[in-house]
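User: I'm writing a tutorial on reading structure tokens. Could you give me a worked example: one chain, its sequence, then its tokens, then a sentence or two explaining what the tokens reveal?
Assistant: Sure. Here is the example chain.
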Amino acid sequence: MAFVVKDRVKETTTTTGTGTITLAGAESGFQAFSVIGDGNSTYYAIVGDTEWEVGIGTYTSSGTTLARDSVISSSNSGSLVNFSAGSKDVFVTLPAEKSNGFAVAMALAI
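And here are its predicted structure tokens:
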């Protein structure tokens, strides 16, 4: 499928472990991951207390899940985080290491 990035996409999850995240719905004022489209990939961040992960994931509308396909950076030395119990925020983001080309293009445009 396609790689899609959208603004103001943020949901919560209580999923634990290192597997696929089950999304629990959009936070007030934000869009749900459904705007990414079934089977499409996107950049994501998951943040819970001191645990965090940034990567590329695939959204699936059946079960409203986000598969954690590739970790870019994390609180677990760049590996999948074994998330503990509790609520976590899951949102679309542009990873810092992927933004360098954008910063150079903007500097050249100025």
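What the tokens reveal: The chain has a mean pLDDT of 93. The helical segments are 100-109.
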